[in-house]
Each structure stands twice: as structure tokens, then as C-alpha cells.
Amino acid sequence: MLKILILSLILTENVFSLIVNPTLNETFIHNTYKYDELIDLTVNKTVMHILDFEEDSDILSVYPTRVHVGTNDSISVDYPLLVTASQQKGISSWDLPLVINTKNKVLYFNDMARTLCPHDAGPNITAQGRPSMTLSTSSPNNVTVKIKVRRVQDFYLEVNKEVTLNVTPSTPKYYYFSFDRDPLNLPHSQRSHLLFPKFNYTIPKSVLLTIDSDDDVCAIVSIQSNSCPVFDNERDVTYRGYHFTMTRKGGITVTQSMFPRGFYVVFIVMESDERCSGVAARAHDRRKTFRFEAAASVSAAEYAAGALAALALVLLVALLAPLAHALSCASHETVIIIENEPVPSSSRDVAGIADDTPIVSRHSDEFESEVESEAEAAAAPLTLAGLSRARPQAHSRRSYRYFTSSLTVAVVYALPVVQLLATYQARVRQSGDQDVCYYNFLCALPLGALSDGNHVASNAGYVLLGAAFMLQVRWRQARRAAAPYRGDVGIPEHPGLLYSMGLALVMEGVLSACYHLCPNKMNFQFDSSFMYVTAVLCMVKLYQSRHPDVNASANTTFLLLAFVMAIGVIGIMDPNPYFWAVFTIAHLSICFFLTLKIYYVGKFKMPYYVGMFAVLLYVNECRCGHEGASLARRAVAALRARGRAALRPARPARALLLAVVNVCNWALAAYGMYEHNGDFARHLLAVLLGNTLLHTCCYVALKLRHGERLPPAAWLWLALAPAAWAAAAAFFLDSRTKWSETAARSRTHNAPCTALRVFDSHDLWHLASAAAIFFSFNLLLIIDDPLADTPRHLIPVF
């Protein structure tokens, strides 16, 4: 009788079917339900439900189906609820509860929602098939299930339309953007009975996807091609397309060349925040609200206009050099500075020394037991004649060693950098992991094979201005060679050192461009290395102007640079407080030593054995109960003999400038110790560039203090360089990425392009710093031109 009843029900309207398997004691309930209705069902290990769905109208059949399943009952993880959705071209399955194991807590989700893959997404969409679903469980207890299916009417994204959505780990969502003129692509006759989304019929070839959120819950966003299945869970989302983590802000530029027909945008809330924050935070509410929008990216015409504008600006900066030269020529007059003849010092009247013998060799084995008194030093000032005894050919040879060393370092350093960064770029394209490279994704404009072409191209300013400076040096060298030899007059020029400065600027552009192929913590030193070189070479140039024979050799200089770069790498890899403390002590110790050397014009010498002897003597006095007695007696004797004059520096101008420099360095060191964050490379760059600028200011001030005239063009560079450096510093501090943080947190600093829709603040830093360095180089190049006809015994050393 029961079999007859079941058969009659099946043969009727097929609205309800009940199939009983007496052998297995199982009941299969097959029923047809409608969309947008909340359905209550009960399942256990003996009851399984099979659900079909129907709609009153096909008007929404072009949209995909989203399934919502939940329960208020406690479901054991040993007896989960199994949900299966069958479509024409695939099957999807899930289980409840969703279990999330974090380091601090286990989370259970008793509800889930999934969007069924629209197999016909893209051209020639006709209708999305209705699924057939199965609910089952092995639980011996009844489980009440609520289920609802609906059409996702906001599934197709429109240009410049913001979409808001809520996501949990168990309810991921995704949407579709089409690059076709109309993704439905149907004739008008087939549209009449369907409700289609409104599409922009001028869809761009490139779109910027901007995503915002008001909470710090960690999420992953994936960009996938329009094929099924769509990977919408944390475990397999990384196997297709492009993906990145985010908290409050995210973005990516997608072009039609990447996805010719269109792409899915998948939103998934991650099980924990560790990947975004870097620490295992306590588990909390895993619900996240997104707001996102697809907007037209920069067109090719806008891209070209921005690039040409930047190029024009760089060329304008380069043209300032010949204009400044014309200004100097228009007001040129020969001036010989006449001062009281200084008392001849032993440094100028040493007999038996060849002209090409450096003065530094005369005292290499001489031990000075006491520091010369300030009065004696002031009575016998040094002049350039005493520190420039080498022949011009010897000066030229030594200076060209800087250029050959710079060229060798540039080639050896750059080749592996290019190879490494090209490998990074290929890795990103193959894996799709957008967390590898720390771009400003809201202003990362693809250019050919480059993911961030604008940040690469903006480095052209370094290359062009560096080449322009080298051409200036070559032109000056040709003029000097054509002029008759004038004897020992003027400041000796070191063309090789000047060439190496120009080459350093060129290589800064090359390596910075390489760094921006894939910027991250592991390769930041490539971006800053030749900035270090530039800063050190400028300081060498300033010192060499007044100390031609006693300057550091090229080998020593580049050995020092290698040491600085090694410190930078250590600081990037492990910036712990102990490292900061050691670096700060070394920094301030070097400042103190150089202060004494500069104040006493190189006459203050303290070999290591003198320092050791002083320490031992001090310890012995402490043991004898006469701590510091000898030092105190000296101080009292000096005060009795000279009164307050003993406290007055013999060189007040130099003392004041050195005091300012030391205060600045102490302030910078204190700030570094207070912050001691992971961005040590930026601190090291600030130390080197800051001291270079301070050294330049001191040099100019001492020139004016000694009554030396500055050429008109130098005043132009003195006006332009600080303005350019101030602008560059402002742009540099307005950082749009933070490689010292996680990729997700770095994205919170991202911002859209501000200049011509092509460049952001970091691009402007490239352009402004290139101009600032170029102006500074030109200042160093011509600052001593008025001394060209001044005898060297009248040029003071400072």
C-alpha cells in the first residue's frame, strides 16, 4: 500500500516525493521550492532532503544564484551538516559548522552562504541554471536547517558605482566585471522579458579597483578569470589569478590584457589577523564590511602627457646650468683677494720634498705628545699652498681613481640587482601574490611588462641630470685644457671626482628604477646605496677643495662606503634596540672626533696608543685617590693665566658652526633612539644627507667669513637647492608605502595619484631630489670660481 502511495505522488505534479529505503532505514525527501523563500527543514542520519527550485518569472535568470544555509542547533564537528549544490556544469559542496582554529581560540560558524559559479559569465549570457541541492548529516539527532536561495542582482559591476557588502569567513562573496561592451551581448528580441543590469557602454580598457573598510579585520581579495570554479575560500584562493591581503584599504589596477573578457573580484575574511598584523591577536568578531568601486584608470593619452610633462621639467632644470653660466659670464670680473701675508708655517717651508709628494707623508711616523696651543695655531694659519704641493697630473690621476672605482662598483653592483628584481617581477606575475611587492597600488600604473611603470619612469630625472652634470664637467675640462697654464693659482679641480659624482646620480636613477620593479624590505638597500655614495662624495669634494694633498684616497672612500652599506643591511635585517644603541654611540663618537679634527685644522692627533695611555693614566689616578687631579690642575692654571679668555674659542666662527652641526647630529641620534623602528635605512640616509647639507652650509659660511666672494650663479644655486631639498623632504616623508610593516598595513598608506593623475608623492620625491642634487652639484662645481686667479698662498684652509 505504501509503495502505491509513493508511486502516485511521483506520477502527479512532482511537487513532493518521498522515497523510503527499508533496507538502510533511510528516507529521501525530494521537493521543489521557490526562490527568495525561507525554508525550514529537519535532517538526521535517516532523513535526507533533495531540493529543486523554481521562479515565477525568468526576468532575473541572467543573474547567478546565492545559497544561504544556517541552523540554530548545536552541530557536532563529528556529525557535520553536508550541503551539496549541483549545476549543469559542476558541483559545489560545503559542511557546517565551519571550524576556525586560531592560536588563541576555536571559532564555530553555523551559517554559510555561497554564490554558485555562473558558468556563462561573459559574452552570450542567456540564463543562469537553477541548482539542485542536497542536505544530509550523520547526526543521530534532528538538526533544524534554514535555507534560502536568491538571485544576486548586484553581481555585475558597473563603472564608478560603489558597492557595499558584508563578509564573514563562512560567507565569502564575489562579483564580476566585464571588459566587453555589454557582457550579456544578446539581440533586442531576447532582452524584452529579462531584467538586465545597466552597463556603461564605454567600458575602459583598464580599471582601478579601490576597496575601503572601517575595521582592521584581515581579509584577502582575489582577482580571477571568468571561469569556474571560482576559488572563494582561504585555502585555495591563492591558486588562481591575483590576490592580496588588506585591512582598511586595498586596490589594484586591472587591464584587459590581463583578463580579456572580464574578471571576478572575490572577498574572503581570513580566519585570523596574523597575516595582516604580523602578530597572533585574540580572536574576535570576524565580520567585515567592504566598500569598493571600479573606476576608469589612466588612459594612454594621460599617461603620455604626464611622462612628457615630467621630461620637460627635467630638461628645464638641466637648462638652468648654461643659463647660470651665462649669468656668471655677464658679470665676470677678475678679483684677487689681498690679505695680510700669513706667517710661514712649517707645513709650507719643508725643504727637500718633491712637488708631487703628498704632505700627508711628512708626519706619518711622527708622534705629537701634546696638542698645539690654540694661540700658536692661530698665529700660523694654513693656506692652500701648503696643502697643494702635488703636481696637477698627480691630482688628476688620484681624482680619476674615484671615477674608475665608481664605475667598477656601479657595474658589479647593478648587474645582480637587475637580475634579482627581474626575477621578483616574474615571480609576482606567475604566482599572482601581490603581497611580495610593496607598491602604492592606488597609483601603480602598468606599463608593458612593468606592474608599476610610473614609479620606474620617474627615475629618469636622476639619469638625465647626472648625464647633464657630467657633460658640464667635460666642457669645463675642455676649456681649462685650452687655456694657458697659470701656475699655482685657484682651487685645484678634481675632474675624476666630479665625474664620479655625476655617475653616482645616474646610478641612483638606475638602481631606484630597479628597486621599483618590486619594492620590499629585502631590496630597499638597492634604492638607497648610491644616495649614500652621493652624500659621501659631496663631503669628500668639499674637504678636497681646501685639502688637495691630504684627502682620503678612492680606495679608502669606497671601503668606508662598503662599511656604511653593510651597516645599512644589518639595520634593515635586524633593527633591534641594541643595534640602535651601538650605532648611535659610533655616530656620536665619529662626530666628536671629526669636530676636533676640523676645529684644529687637522693638527689635533690622537693615535690609539695615546688614547689607551690616557685611559690607563686616568684609572691610576682614580686608584690613588686623585681622580682627575692633573686635568683639574691644568684647567685651574689656564683660568688663572688667561681668565675668561681661556673659555673663549680662538676660532669663534668655526666653533659656532661646529656646535650647530653637533646639535643637529645629537638631535638626529636622539630621535633615532626614541623611534628605533624598522626603517633604519631611512635614518642612515638622513644622517648622511643631513651632514652633507650641513657641511655645505658651513663651507659657504666660512667662505663668507674669510671675505671670499661667491659667483652670481652660486647665489642662484643657493636659492634653488634648499627649496628643492625642502620639497623633496616633504614628498619623501609623505610615504605611501611602509616596507617595515606587513603588506596589508602598508596598503593603508596607499593613495591615488595626485600629479596629473600619473604621479604620487614618491614620484615627486624622485623628481625633486634629482633636481636638488643637481643644484647642489652645480654649487660645488662653481663655488670657488672667483678664486681662479688668486695665488694659493692667499687662499685660507678651513
Description:
The chain has helices spanning 2-11, 274-277, 300-330, 374-379, 392-431, 453-457, 460-482, 495-515, 524-546, 554-573, 577-599, 608-623, 629-642, 652-675, 680-705, 712-733, 743-747, 761-782, and strands spanning 16-21, 26-34, 39-43, 47-54, 65-70, 81-86, 91-96, 98-101, 106-109, 111-115, 132-137, 143-151, 163-167, 173-178, 206-212, 219-225, 242-246, 249-255, 262-269, 288-296. With 798 residues, the protein is an alpha+beta fold. α7 runs parallel beside α18. The protein is elongated, with a radius of gyration of 37 Å.
Biggest sheet strand line-up:
1-2-4-11-6-7
Helical fraction = 40-55%
Low-confidence stretches: 1-15, 333-379, 606-629
Number of DSSP-assigned strands: 20
Q: What is the CATH C-level name of the domain at 2-297? A: Mainly Beta
What proportion strand?
15-25%
Cα Rg: 37 Å
CATH architecture of the domain at 2-297: Sandwich
CATH overall fold name of the domain at 2-297? Jelly Rolls
Main beta sheet strand tally, sense and closure: 6 strands, mixed
Compute the separation of the termini in Å: 117 Å
Number of helical runs? Answer: 18
Mean model confidence by pLDDT: 80
Coarse morphology: elongated
Based on helices, strands and strand pairing, what is the structural class? alpha+beta
SSE blueprint and pairings:
Layout: H1 2-11, E1 16-21, E2 26-34, E3 39-43, E4 47-54, E5 65-70, E6 81-86, E7 91-96, E8 98-101, E9 106-109, E10 111-115, E11 132-137, E12 143-151, E13 163-167, E14 173-178, E15 206-212, E16 219-225, E17 242-246, E18 249-255, E19 262-269, H2 274-277, E20 288-296, H3 300-330, H4 374-379, H5 392-431, H6 453-457, H7 460-482, H8 495-515, H9 524-546, H10 554-573, H11 577-599, H12 608-623, H13 629-642, H14 652-675, H15 680-705, H16 712-733, H17 743-747, H18 761-782
Parallel strand pairs: 2-4
Antiparallel strand pairs: 1-2, 3-12, 4-11, 5-10, 5-12, 6-7, 6-11, 8-9, 13-20, 14-19, 15-18, 15-20, 16-17, 16-19
Transmembrane segments: 303-324, 400-422, 456-475, 555-573, 579-600, 655-674, 680-702, 714-733, 764-783
Signal peptide: 1-17
Subcellular location: Membrane
